[in-house]
Amino acid sequence: MRLILSGRWLGKSGFYEAEIENINFYQSLKEIEKIPPMTFVIFSYQLSGETLNLNIKNPNLPAIVIVKIKKLNKIIPKLADTKIIFVDKALKDGEFKAGILKIKGLIKEGTVYQINLTNRFDFELHTPPINLFFNFYKNQPVPYAFFLDAEKFFIISGSMELFLEKNGVLIKSKPIKGTAKSHNFLKNSIKDRAENLMITDMMRNDLGRISQFGSVRVTELFKITRYKTLYQMHSTVEGNTDKSLIEIMKKTFPPASVTGAPKRKAVEIIDILEPHIREYYCGCGGLIKSETEFTLSVLIRTAIGSKNTLSYYAGCGIVWDSIPERELKELHLKIKAFYSSDL
């Protein structure tokens, strides 16, 4: 077992490796009353079925992973050559574009307003996964990177999206919607701003379910951040709450930015349109210091593997203004930091 975190989880630079006390696996939020302090947790997207009372495809991996940490030690990463070979994708390009057209049809009917459509890219792994993690981070440094080797499976995450952060009674979320190569394009994109606003409003509603009345507010709107391979747009929503982490999860999971609007119907449609199981991708993971201090990222830009195989996932938010060819380009842009060759 091995857990490595980028220093940003701790408000520091560099990388830290955990001395692991134990690791536990669960299948339901009902099995957990309280999460102990100094743990790293991962919640699978498939918990959406539980929180939204839906019957969706079930993964083979545990729904919840809880890693108890004794201590975090700073390490120096050892960069090495990596080799992965592309094998296949769950949806061919034509199938992905057809899925976009189906979603636009549902939007036209008024069934949904937005759907996050994702794809899975499968690879053969010919290098230790830890090398791939460090190389991925070098290609695109992000705040919420981590590597977990749980022996039977491993997770590599290069997420830049904050799902939930709690300090005392203050709870914060920074949903991402809007991706482009150009700052000016993203700044002037009416489509991306509308998409971002829709998800921000969803997050306001979600936080409103667990926050004190009148405390929910939007403190940032349409903020653009530059990363090595792309630009991302996010907004920030805050509230005040005294609810526990498990109570908060039951009311806000899955993250709005990786589902769509309305959320329950979006998850139902996603399960029909996507042949693959998302597993931990589009779930959340993060560091729990205490019941009143924790940080959870949305598990975007995330790969899941076992032995010499792994899958990397990426997706796009589809709205009425979406153009299939442009969404496909955005999808491939999100893969560049992980795999630079054409797919």
Labels describing this entry:
single chain; 343 residues; Anthranilate synthase; 18 strands
CATH fold label? Anthranilate synthase
* Structural class by helix and strand composition: alpha+beta
Number of strands: 18
The percent of residues in helical segments reads 10-25%
Output the number of helix runs: 8
The CATH superfamily is identified as Anthranilate synthase
How much of the sequence lies in strands comes to 35-45%
Distance separating the two termini: 32 Å
Quick one: biggest sheet?
Answer: 18 strands, antiparallel
* Architecture per CATH nomenclature, i.e. the level-2 architecture: 4-Layer Sandwich
Number of domains: 1
Short description:
The protein has helices spanning 48-51, 93-109, 129-139, 183-187, 190-208, 245-252, 263-273, 324-333, and strands at residues 2-6, 15-26, 39-43, 64-75, 84-89, 114-125, 144-149, 154-159, 162-167, 170-174, 176-180, 217-226, 231-240, 260-261, 284-290, 293-298, 302-306, 309-318.
List the helices and strands and how they pair.
Blueprint: E1 2-6, E2 15-26, E3 39-43, H1 48-51, E4 64-75, E5 84-89, H2 93-109, E6 114-125, H3 129-139, E7 144-149, E8 154-159, E9 162-167, E10 170-174, E11 176-180, H4 183-187, H5 190-208, E12 217-226, E13 231-240, H6 245-252, E14 260-261, H7 263-273, E15 284-290, E16 293-298, E17 302-306, E18 309-318, H8 324-333
Antiparallel strand pairs: 1-2, 1-7, 2-4, 3-4, 3-15, 5-6, 6-14, 6-18, 7-8, 8-17, 9-10, 9-16, 10-13, 11-13, 12-13, 15-16, 17-18
Describe the structure.
The protein has 343 residues and is of the alpha+beta class. It has one domain: 4-Layer Sandwich (Anthranilate synthase), CATH 3.60.120.10. Helix content is 25%, strand content 38%. The protein contains 8 helices and 18 strands. The protein has helices at residues 48-51, 93-109, 129-139, 183-187, 190-208, 245-252, 263-273, 324-333, and strands at 2-6, 15-26, 39-43, 64-75, 84-89, 114-125, 144-149, 154-159, 162-167, 170-174, 176-180, 217-226, 231-240, 260-261, 284-290, 293-298, 302-306, 309-318. It has an 18-stranded antiparallel beta sheet that branches. β15 (284-290) and β16 form a beta hairpin. The chain is globular and about 50 Å long. The two termini are 32 Å apart.
